[in-house]
Design a protein that fits this description.
Mean pLDDT: 86
Order of helices and strands: EEHHHHH
Distance between the termini: 47 Å
Helix content: 40-55%
Number of strands: 2
Radius of gyration: 21 Å
Strand order of the largest sheet: 1-2
Shape: elongated
Low-confidence stretches: none
Strand content: under 5%
């Protein structure tokens, strides 16, 4: 999925704490490309599914597009949450834990203070 999501807002120099990114989907996009050249396991899975789907005597050839459209319609909110969770870096997960802790305890710990507390370092 190249260039179908664009970050909104002006670029500012330097680090900006707790700045939430906003994305806009470009709905005029009509083509999507999936590069699996460095993901042999996923590529093997897809080819296996295509072979299995096309082991039939009648009907047109089933394409990757057909698999994708069917699979996308089966995604649940729970699946989307897992995908979102998988998109987070390690530091984003730490920052989220810090934000949740500060909100829950009405504190305003820095990242260092939070890590010292969580790791039990004196």
């Amino acid at each position: 999925m190249e260039n179908n999501i664009e970050e909104v807002g002006k670029k500012r120099r330097g680090r900006h704490k707790n700045q939430k990114k906003e994305f806009v989907i470009k709905e005029e996009q009509t083509k999507f490309f999936v590069d699996l050249s460095h993901d042999k396991e996923s590529l093997d899975l897809i080819f296996g599914l295509l072979r299995k789907c096309n082991e039939k005597d009648f009907g047109k050839e089933i394409l990757f597009k057909d698999l994708c459209l069917y699979a996308v319609s089966k995604l649940t909110d729970k699946d989307l949450e897992k995908i979102q969770e998988g998109s987070l870096s390690e530091m984003e997960k730490v920052q989220r834990a810090l934000d949740e802790h500060n909100k829950k305890t009405c504190a305003n710990l820095s990242l260092g203070e939070f890590l010292v507390k969580k790791l039990g370092i004196n």
